[in-house]
Amino acid sequence: FQYLKRYDQGYNLDTFCYEAHSVEGSPAECLQQFLLHCGITDPSWSELRNFTWFLNVQLRDCEASVFCNPDFVQDTLQGF
């Protein structure tokens, strides 16, 4: 949710990193973001769950990768 919210607001996501147990927004805002970005018109709960699970895994792996660390790559992979 935090990545999608910042993406919609035009923030640079290269420097954002999720902090465990941090809470932003309401459950309704969270659901609205997922519905906007999941790519399916009128998704089922299962489809929303799969979308959020996949997005979470990808973002966690990205944050853990040294190649996605802006301090390591500096400006060589801008926008990657």
UniProtKB/TrEMBL annotation:
This is RN213 ligase. The keyword Phosphoprotein does not apply. It comes from the Eukaryota. One of its GO terms (molecular function) is ATP hydrolysis activity. One of its GO terms (cellular component) is nucleolus. Keywords: Ligase. GO terms for biological process: negative regulation of non-canonical Wnt signaling pathway; sprouting angiogenesis; ubiquitin-dependent protein catabolic process. InterPro entries: RNF213. It comes from Phaetusa simplex. The keyword Acyltransferase does not apply.
